[in-house]
Every structure is written in C-alpha cells, then in structure tokens.
C-alpha cells in the first residue's frame, strides 16, 4: 500500500474514535467493540506510525542529499568566479584606469567647448549688432529718399490734377449752363402744353342723313385746343400724345353701322338696331395720335337702314391723356 492509502485509513480511524484529549490510543470507555477489533486497530495504528516514520526518514535523506549537491555546485561556481576574476584582474584594472582618463578628457573637452561656444556667441552677437546698425542706417537713408520722391511726385500730381480739375470745371460749367437752359426751355414748352388742354365735346342737333357722309356734330359744347371743326365734323390732333375718343349714337327705324376713322383708316365700329324700342350704339377708343392726325365718324349706307337721331342723343367727344 502507498503512504496515501495508510493516511486515508488513519484519518477514518481518528474520525470515528476521537477522544477529548486529542488523538492517541483506542479509548477504554468508547463505543463497545470486540477484542479482535481493538487489537486490529492497535496493530493498524502501529503499522501506520512505523510506515510514516520510515517515509519521513527516507524523504529527509533524499532532501539532505539534494542539498549537499546544491552546496557543492555553489562552491564550484564560486571557485570558477574567483578564477575568472583573477584572470580578468589586469583587464579590469586597465578598464578602470581608462574610464578615469576618459572622464578627465571628457571634462576637458566640455570646458573647451564651453569656452569656444561663449567666444562664438560673443562674436555672433557683435556681428549681428553691426549688421543691424548698418541695416537701420540704410533703411533711414532709403526712407528719407523715398519720402522726398513721394513729396515731389505728390506736388507734381496735385498740380496736374488741379489743372485737370480747372479744365473739367470749366467744361462742366458750360455743359451745366447749356443743360439748365435746355431744361428751362423744355419746362416752358411743357407749361404751354399743360395750359393747352386738349378736349372736345359735340352733339348732333338733327337726324343724320343715310348717305355715305361724315356725321357732322354741329352743336359744340367744349373745344379746348380748337381741335374739332364744326363745319367738317373732323377732329385734328393739335399735339402728339395719347388720346381717348368716344362716339355714342341713337338709332331710329332700323339698324345703323358707324365707323370711327383716323386718316381714312378704320380704328373702331359701332352698331345699333331699333326693334320695339330705340337703342344706342357706341365706339370707345384709346390711341396714340401724331400732330395733324384726323378723326371722324361716318355711317355705312350699305349696312344701315335707319337714321341716327339728333336732339343731343348722339355725341362725339375726346381728350388727350398725356
């Protein structure tokens, strides 16, 4: 059996037969068991104890041997290190000496570099200061020359501009005077045009004939601007402008077609018919007229069977808008 097996048996034994003073021999006043069992347990306890002691002794001996080997290895390694140190002692001495010399050289080089650096700095500062002073002097000279040139150019340019301004002022003054005179002339003409309001209004006193003749509105109510001719029944535009023309007529016994003419060209037509009652036709036109254009109304005989009634029922009127 292995040691672990003996330990398991021992643990089971101790759990079942525990005493108040600890673990030891089988108790005298414990649970009743036969004499053979007691002897077996005692024998088992003895065997386990002997086996445990044997294993402990064996394990201790193995550990002691391993420890001795470790000590021997360490001792051997120490001897090797001592031999190596003895062999490398001259080299270590030379290295220590070299390290000391190198530190001295390094310190000296550092001090020399610091001295050279300081001298170089001072030299650079002096050179830079010299360059700055020279640059400032050159800039002052350049600024002075530039200032003088600018002043001279400004004065010359001012004189040129003054001459140009005087010439322009003279020409502008002449043009403004001419323009003002023209505006006043136009204004005067406009006042005259405004004062000459163009408007006319005329009516028919008697019934108009049936032939192809101009309807002459013989009863003139208004004729501002003297554009309407009562003898001819024609309105002649006194001025260029936009005009509104209106013709209204009452028909008796039949139907009537009336045309509004401008310089013998039709620009409007009206129609009316008398059935149970008399009816009125009309023409309303807004048109541009040039000075001298003629407007009039005439009845179409081939398309008219009735009469155009007078007695102020038929009118012809117009006025200039602008």
TrEMBL record:
Keywords: Secreted, Signal. It is found in: Secreted. It holds the Pfam family C1q. PROSITE patterns: C1Q. Residues 1-24 form the signal peptide. Gene3D superfamilies: 2.60.120.40. Residues 193-322 form the C1q domain. InterPro entries: C1q_dom (IPR001073), Cerebellin_Synaptic_Org (IPR050822), Tumour_necrosis_fac-like_dom (IPR008983). One of its GO terms (cellular component) is extracellular region. It comes from the Eukaryota. This is C1q domain-containing protein. It comes from Mytilus coruscus. The lineage of its organism: Eukaryota, Metazoa, Spiralia, Lophotrochozoa, Mollusca.
């Amino acid at each position: 059996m292995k040691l672990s097996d003996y330990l398991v048996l021992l643990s089971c034994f101790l759990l079942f037969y525990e005493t108040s003073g600890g673990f030891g021999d089988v108790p005298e006043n414990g649970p009743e068991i036969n004499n053979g069992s007691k002897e077996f347990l005692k024998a088992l306890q003895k065997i386990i104890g002997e086996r445990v002691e044997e294993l402990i002794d064996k394990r201790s001996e193995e550990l002691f041997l391993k420890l001795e080997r470790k000590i021997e290895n360490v001792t051997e390694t120490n001897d090797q290190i001592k031999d190596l140190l003895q062999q490398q002692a001259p080299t270590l001495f030379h290295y220590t000496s070299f390290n000391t010399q190198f530190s001295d050289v390094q310190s000296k080089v550092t001090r020399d570099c610091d001295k050279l650096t300081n001298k170089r700095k001072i030299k650079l500062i002096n050179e830079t200061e010299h360059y700055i002073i020279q640059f400032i002097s050159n800039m002052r000279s350049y600024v002075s020359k530039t200032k003088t040139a600018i002043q001279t150019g400004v004065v010359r340019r001012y004189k040129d501009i003054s001459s140009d301004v005087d010439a322009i002022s003279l020409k502008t003054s002449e043009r403004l005077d001419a323009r003002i005179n023209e505006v006043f002339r136009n204004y005067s003409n406009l006042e005259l045009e405004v004062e000459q309001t163009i408007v006319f209004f005329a009516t028919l006193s008697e019934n108009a004939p049936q032939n192809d003749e101009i309807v002459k509105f013989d009863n003139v109510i208004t004729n501002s601007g003297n554009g309407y001719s009562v003898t001819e029944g024609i309105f002649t535009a006194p001025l260029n402008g936009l005009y509104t023309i209106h013709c209204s007529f009452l028909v008796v016994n039949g139907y009537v077609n009336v045309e509004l003419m401008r310089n013998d060209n039709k620009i409007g037509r009206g129609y009316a018919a008398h059935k149970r009652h008399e009816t009125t036709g009309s023409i309303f036109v807004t048109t541009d007229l040039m000075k001298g254009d003629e407007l009039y109304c005439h009845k179409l005989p081939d398309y008219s069977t009735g009469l155009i009634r007078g007695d102020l029922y038929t009118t012809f009127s117009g006025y200039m808008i602008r």
